[in-house]
UniProtKB/TrEMBL annotation:
This is Transcription antitermination protein NusB. GO terms for biological process: DNA-templated transcription termination; transcription antitermination. SUPFAM superfamilies: NusB-like (SSF48013). The keyword RNA-binding applies. It comes from the Bacteria.
Amino acid sequence: MVTKHQFTSRTKARKRAADVVFEADQRGMGSNPEVLRDLLRERKVITAALTPLPDYSIRIIEGVAQELRRIDTLIDDHADVAGLDRIPAVDLAVMRVAVWEMLANQEDVPAVIAIDEAISIVKSISTDASPNFVNAVLDAVRKEIHSPAWTRSRVHEDGIYDEDSAESDMSAMNDAEELSFEDFAADIAAPEMPVESADGLASDADMEGDTRSDEVIADATGDDHNEPEDVDIESSEGEQKRYPTLADITAADLAELDELLDEY
């Protein structure tokens, strides 16, 4: 059973605005705000009600048309349904009005008041389940609007939300990836660790091959036999110590390098 509520003049203006938004949706508005604007022009002249549209109703409808895409994105993000078409049309119209008030008229109407008004309207014209659903969605929208992430979004000088700029900022942040351990180690070691062929390890020119011949090892070490890879040979005077390349570093080498980096 639907319970009737005593509406204030502002509440009536919100309901009249929701009626027009609902009618535009039934005409196939979707995400096209021009349908709502055309209907508003008609309702300014011809209306089924005994009185013309209140000024606040007109202001709400114009605001919803201007911010329709942003409003619908917020509702869709927080309504636990598979798309706006799954939300009862009456509830969607009322929530669009309330979200506009939270976005563009919060100095005049606090968010909690906008939510309470929306709940009062759906109690009188929608289903018994609507008040809880509308309250949950609008409260989640309120929290997002007042979160720091939302306030950092780009806004044009004329006050219109710049979604493309915000998406670009997020894309730039996602592109800034952290270096892997190996990349970080290479960046630090590269300027101070010249690589020369020694101890059976391949030089940068030899890294293209998967295996190394005995001749290459002999040339690198100056011996006629292969030196074991784990044998350390001290550098002679005037020679710089040879460090392994990333292709030759084992798990044990990485652990040792990690300790060196900690000390560095």
